[in-house]
Amino acid sequence: MLVHICCSVDSHYFLQKLQAEYPEEKLTGFFYDPNIHPYSEYYLRLLDVKRSCKMLGIDLIEGEYDVENWLEAVRGLEHEPEKGTRCSICFDRRFEVSAQKASQMGESTFTSTLLTSPKKSLKQLQVAGDALAEREGISFIAPDYRKASGTQEQNILAKEDALYRQDYCGCMFGLNIQRDQQEKLADELFVPLSKQIQPESIEERIQMYEKRWEMEEANIPHKIIKQRFLNWRLMMGQLRIRKEVVPAHFLPYSTLKKEYTRGKIEYHIGEIHHMNRDEVRFITLDHYNDLSNSNYKTVTELIFSPPAFSKEVELRTKLGVTPYDLSIILVVKQIPTNKIEILCQSKVYSDVKEVLITI
């Protein structure tokens, strides 16, 4: 039996139920989810599915990440709600490829872990699965493992085995709609030009879950815990001196009360130069290099290849900045002496992150 897999939380429980109900069947997992955005999120979910299948002794096949065809299939349906027309097409697309894969492999049956997702319509999924199975000359099974407290059992199992629990279905359209309703920033879609890994980003989670895999392989006791913290994202920052844009690096947690300010350097204390408005501070690239033990030749080089986020937070501390200070700190080649204009679109917000610890 070929089992289309959407994510580890759904598949881990679903596959174990199938193993119990169909003990004579050889189950093969098929991870095919071109709807998942961004690719880093796709990779993270695949990583956890691989771990789940390894734990259950199930072979896994990865389908093609043909995101362009998926986007074309749902064109014009970007604002459809969850369980709407876009979702129907998404199911059809994934089921069609899964049914074709099952037929190519000589399997007589296929199913999908989407059936156990509480966010999906069981009837909607069964109609799509049956139609595509008939076309391929195979059968589609749609067991209801949600009933009899199945969803609760699924959640308990996911927690016991420390599975990665994503908090959105998968596609960018559903994510944006969900975050708008929650009045939250869709920071999953933020990737800095510098490629610096941001706190509680998908890229940071990938690092953690890859490290977790290594610790499991080495039998190192560990635990994933959650912590609440103040997160930050910079959407855009610009420094202009006499209307000319000048390279400037914004240190983490730099914010403005409004998005724009202007002024001039009023005084300095040691190597830190203070603007006369909005608590803005400047340091030179040379001072940055001294504090961070780095050797950046230009500010542009720093902008596009900064050190780790945590290292720059430590640097703020070395500048005498308290943990609660959200003032802008700009790194420039030379301290400006003329009129300064700053545009800073950033956001600070309460967030929760997972942390891997050794026990």
Can you offer a commentary on this structure?
With 359 residues, this protein is of the alpha/beta class. The protein has two domains: 2-178, HUPs (Rossmann fold, 3-Layer(aba) Sandwich); 229-354, no CATH class. Helix content is 38%, strand content 23%. It is built from eleven helices and 14 strands. The two termini are 40 Å apart.
Brief summary:
This protein is of the alpha/beta class and 359 residues long.
- Structural class by helix and strand composition: alpha/beta
Q: Would you report the number of β strands?
A: 14
Report mean pLDDT, rounded to a whole number. Answer: 95
What are the secondary-structure elements, in order, as H or E?
Answer: EHEHEHHEHEHHHEEEEEEEHHHEE
Could you tell me how far the N terminus lies from the C terminus, measured between alpha carbons in angstroms?
40 Å
Unreliable runs: none
Features:
single chain, 359 residues, alpha/beta, Rossmann fold, 2 domains, 5-stranded parallel beta sheet, 5-stranded mixed beta sheet, 14 strands, 38% helix
SSE arrangement:
Elements (H helix, E strand, L loop, with lengths): L1 E4 L2 H14 L6 E4 L7 H18 L2 E4 L4 H7 L11 H20 L4 E4 L9 H15 L2 E2 L9 H11 L11 H11 L19 H16 L4 E20 L2 E2 L3 E2 L9 E4 L1 E5 L2 E4 L5 E4 H8 L6 H6 L4 H10 L10 E4 L7 E19 L1
Parallel strand pairs: 1-2, 1-4, 2-3, 4-5, 12-13
Antiparallel strand pairs: 6-7, 6-14, 8-13, 9-14, 10-11, 11-12
